[in-house]
Amino acid sequence: METLSHIGVLARFGHALSDPTRARVLIALREAGAYPTELAEQLGVSRTSLSNHLACLRGCGLVVAVPEGKRMRYELADGGLRKALEDLLSTVLTVDPAACDASRAGEDCC
């Protein structure tokens, strides 16, 4: 049986994955923790943009900042997230183009 906390977790996870840059950050962090400068370079985004995405992911409870001297290293907040991301990445979706027509912008669609 789902609880309100389960729904909140899924909503936060969905929000995080709804942005391609945040999704790429999560995928990168599933391998190992990383420093923002390295992540920005790896993903080809500005450090300012990455900082905003990391703040969002922290706010959603999906990543944590671990202080290392004067630097912060980011990593997934929970080992279960690594498994969840791997499971999602291995999922094969059958997309129905008729149901997700890009011309129907604004309607509920993937």
From TrEMBL:
<dbReference type="GO" id="GO:0046686">
    <property type="term" value="P:response to cadmium ion"/>
</dbReference>
<dbReference type="InterPro" id="IPR036390">
    <property type="entry name" value="WH_DNA-bd_sf"/>
</dbReference>
<dbReference type="GO" id="GO:0097063">
    <property type="term" value="F:cadmium ion sensor activity"/>
</dbReference>
<dbReference type="GO" id="GO:0003700">
    <property type="term" value="F:DNA-binding transcription factor activity"/>
</dbReference>
<keyword id="KW-0614">Plasmid</keyword>
<protein>
    <submittedName>
        <fullName>Regulatory protein ArsR</fullName>
    </submittedName>
</protein>
<feature type="domain" description="HTH arsR-type">
    <location>
        <begin position="1"/>
        <end position="96"/>
    </location>
</feature>
<dbReference type="InterPro" id="IPR036388">
    <property type="entry name" value="WH-like_DNA-bd_sf"/>
</dbReference>
<dbReference type="GO" id="GO:0032791">
    <property type="term" value="F:lead ion binding"/>
</dbReference>
<dbReference type="GO" id="GO:0003677">
    <property type="term" value="F:DNA binding"/>
</dbReference>
<dbReference type="InterPro" id="IPR011991">
    <property type="entry name" value="ArsR-like_HTH"/>
</dbReference>
<dbReference type="InterPro" id="IPR001845">
    <property type="entry name" value="HTH_ArsR_DNA-bd_dom"/>
</dbReference>
<dbReference type="GO" id="GO:0010288">
    <property type="term" value="P:response to lead ion"/>
</dbReference>
<dbReference type="Pfam" id="PF01022">
    <property type="entry name" value="HTH_5"/>
</dbReference>
<dbReference type="InterPro" id="IPR052543">
    <property type="entry name" value="HTH_Metal-responsive_Reg"/>
</dbReference>
